[in-house]
Design goal:
By secondary structure, the protein is mainly beta. The chain has one domain: Intracellular proteinase inhibitor BsuPI (Immunoglobulin-like). Helices cover about 5% and strands about 50% of the residues.
Length: about 220
């Protein structure tokens, strides 16, 4: 089960911390030092999520990145769940949405996770990140590039069109450790447009989402 490993490591004569689903269980010999104030383990993990539009020669998609951080001053270690779900919802019409899963396969970077034992270790301040790439299809099988986005001509290139921006809402929840409850990540709005296709800069002037999506 998840446990707190004192950080920095203290002598064996000091208190050790074992994290149970709802409370702390203290074992071992108590040192002369005062014990740190109690903190509910369900609040020590902090999460954020954001959506971005990626437009390159090889990529034209929406990426959702979720970051989970150990905000406690102790190392967290235990059996991991690393499972949850997210939803991308069109703000002006909530019937249009995309639901997806968070899992070990969507985790990126180099976290201290052992897939053989399913043990995850998070040092103080350490982060783990999850990434989901959306291909614009909603839960009904509709392509929002065709059913939602409204396009305008690109004055700099007749070979492509650029949509007016649309606002979406991100909602996410995830369970990091088996013996801790699901985390609900604060909802966040993000605005994107869609550029129809990448054109070789030798043919047309290059276009970038940051400027293209802000043009009326």
């Amino acid at each position: 089960m998840p446990r707190f490993v004192p950080w920095p490591l203290k002598p064996q004569s000091c208190t050790s911390f074992i994290l149970l689903p709802l409370t702390f269980l203290f074992t071992g010999i108590i040192c002369q030092e005062d014990l740190p104030p109690y903190e509910d383990p369900r609040t020590i993990l902090q999460g954020t999520a954001e959506g971005s539009y990626f437009f390159t020669q090889t990529q034209n998609s929406i990426q959702v990145r979720m970051t989970i951080r150990n905000g406690y001053d102790e190392t967290l270690e235990g059996e991991a769940s690393l499972s949850g779900a997210g939803t991308i919802t069109l703000l002006k019409d909530t019937s249009i949405h995309r639901t997806f899963a968070w899992a070990v396969s969507t985790m990126v970077g180099s976290p201290q996770y052992n897939p053989a034992t399913r043990i995850l270790t998070l040092d103080p301040g350490e982060e783990i990140q999850f990434v989901y790439t959306w291909n614009y299809m909603d839960d009904s099988g509709n392509d929002v590039r065709q059913s939602v986005f409204v396009y305008r001509s690109d004055a700099g290139c007749t070979l492509r069109v650029i949509s007016h921006p649309e606002t979406f809402l991100l909602s996410n929840r995830i369970k990091i450790f088996e013996s801790l409850a699901d985390m609900t990540i604060p909802e966040r709005e993000f605005q994107i447009c869609h550029i129809s296709t990448w054109i070789d800069p030798r043919v047309c002037s290059p276009v970038f989402p940051a400027t293209a999506c802000s043009t009326p």
